Amino acid sequence: MSSNSIAAPRSNSAQSPKYKRNKASHSSFEMIAWLFMRLSGVVLIVLIFGHLFVNLMVGEGIHAIDFGFVAGKWSDPFWQIWDLAMLWLAMLHGSNGVRTIINDYAERDGTRMTLKAVLYVASTVIIVLGTLVIFTFDPCPPGAVIDLPSFCTVP
Amino acid sequence: MWSWVGHRITGVVIFIFLLVHVLDTSLVRVSPEAYTAVIGAYKNPIMGLGEAALVAAIVFHAFNGLRIIAVDFWKKGPKYQRQMLWAVLGLWAVTMIPFLIRHLTIVFSNFFGGN
Ligand code: HEM
Questions:
Q1: How far is B114 from chain A (nearest CA, A)?
Q2: pTM here?
């Protein structure tokens, strides 16, 4: 066993002295993403703390949550906008944060691209689904009988 | 360094929870029965403790996020970063104690009291 066959430590890693990834582009995307993380963070504190307080601390807390509870909230445009803003900001903030983490740890180009592709597909599906649910929601669905909010006229 | 590790881990955990949370809430679009059944399955002490852990993670991430913002934008931020970490941990405790008393009372009283 000759010692020559052993590669120098980390010579095959992103931490090696020679940087192997493509040169950074000249766009300002990363700077805008950095700023977005901070601005969305400040807004998210208000949105998430309000969300947790109203859903877990007021009244009966978690025991009050059923279909009627959600229907009552989303029949009010105030909570529709609140939840919509929270959905978009938290998903974009979280996706961008996970993108950073993938860039940090996935050293092989193929692994990095694959993980990011999975992330973008999952995030898009969740944002589109959540948005549709908030806007196409019917608080008194025809045929339903249990847990309806009090304002529904049950046949 | 450890606050950065904590910020990363809580960030990923919250993100994964959020994916699931949007999916379970989407059940309101399926039927009242489907939504209420799945949410009902969450209303037990094990899930109640899980919610408490998740809120603890969010509150840490939120306050430490404010600290990161202060380090980046406030002139004296980098100088006071260590003191601000103690402030983050203090605020975290001050927020979590009342939250835990209220939330765990709700979770456990209804479980044992029957409802
Ligand atoms: C409650 C209010 C929140 C505040 C104040 C906040 C603040 C921050 C800040 C300042 C950063 C650092 C960004 C950077 O270094 O460029 C960050 C990173 C991150 N945040 Fe948040 N955040 C909040 C909520 C959330 C939520 C709800 C999620 C999940 C959906 C999340 C997931 C992440 C992730 C994954 C990272 C990346 C961590 C890293 O790169 O080490 N955050 N957050």
A1: 12
A2: 0.87
The ranges assigned to domains in chain B are 2-111
Q: B65 in ligand 1 pocket by Cβ < 6 Å? A: yes
The CATH architecture assigned to B2-111 reads Up-down Bundle (1.20)
Q: What is the DSSP string of A125-137?
A: HHHHHHHHHHHH-
Chain B CB contacts of A136 under 8 Å are 29
User: What domains appear along chain A, each with residue ranges and CATH number?
Assistant: 29-136 (1.20.1300.10)
Whether A101 and chain B come into contact, CB under 8 Å, resolves to yes
For residues A111 and A27, give the distance between their C-alpha atoms in angstroms, rounded to a whole number. 24
> Are B112 and A60 in contact, with CB atoms under 8 Å apart?
no
**Residue range A98-141, pLDDT digits in tens:** 999 999 898 888 999 999 999 999 999 999 999 999 998 888 88
> Could you tell me how far CA B44 lies from the centroid of its own chain?
18
Q: Which residues of A touch B62 (CB under 8 A)?
A: 41, 44-45, 48-49
Tell me which of A30, A32, A34, A37 to substitute to probe ligand 1's pocket, judged by most ligand atoms within 8 Å of the beta carbon: A37
Ligand 1 pocket member A90 (CB < 6 A) = yes
